Amino acid sequence: MLGLVLRAFGNTLSSRRRQGPLYPGWSFSFEVFxxxxxxxxxxxxxxxxxxxxxxxxxxxxxxxRRMRRAVERREATVGGVPGEWFTPRGKSPxxxxxxxxxxxxxxxxxxxxxxxxxxxxxxxxxxxxxxNYRLAPEHPFPAQLDDTRAVYRALLADGVRxxxxxxxxxxxxxxxxxxxxxxxxxxxxxxPSRAAALSPWTDLPDRSGSLQANAxxxxxxxxxxxxxxxxxxxxxxPRNPLISPAYADLHGFPPLRVEVGTAxxxxxxxxxxxxxxxxxxxxxxxxxxxxxxxxxYLFAAYFQNCKQALCDLATWIRGTSS
Length: 322
Known about the structure:
The protein has about 325 residues and is α/β, with parallel strands linked by helices. Helices cover about 40% and strands about 15% of the residues. The chain has two domains: about 1-45, no CATH class; about 60-315, Rossmann fold, CATH 3.40.50.1820. Helix 4 (about 115-125) links the parallel strand 3 (about 95-100) and strand 4.
């Protein structure tokens, strides 16, 4: 990791001397950080998928140690799906969050996101369950939605009231959050009180606009999207509304929070999705975080603006204005 940091530092120094910051207003430290993320992502590419997952889980567990005195972690199975509960210590919150992690439908877990989830549970005054839904390519679509739906139904069967339940997710988990709402609505099932889609991947076939224009700033690479789609979608149509919520009917949704960073590759498609949600009459709270890269909430421990984004989300989850 030290080698990646030194390389990112040198690249940032050289680049700024030639053309200034990659994004207007970026601090030197934030630009180094984003370059480290990109270099780290590329360094993992040659590894096998199981090894990448193992290393990411290990990194996530290490990050989560700083929150262990404030939030309890407990492994559990809900609706036949393994995952983890995160509960503020010494509290019995009435509010429950079902949180769906990101990772391109192929990676990510309750462990990779643990530090952020612990912060979110604490700030939201809620207990939070993060399921480890099945991943592609071993389990392509619709395994992820099936698992998410099973967890949601099991929470209600266990006594969680829909009015006390919030569904949230980032990236691929933001996608699952939206398609879960559509699936529940179409089945005539109770919807949660509200939902939040953070940096959601809404249009899987899209390769235009910001997906190219922001590639040098964000920490994924354009070619990653082709790999994720191929492994997740398989023989299905990527424009299936339960795969790409950009094509879904959004009528009848509960209050929805949608967030994206202006330096993200997904910026354009998230903006387009938010516009469709407004036109469908969804009670929408749409936020753009200036200069933020993908999933800025994961970096709340390092940068104040990332921490503030997470705190504002928690305020919204509590049902008050931020």
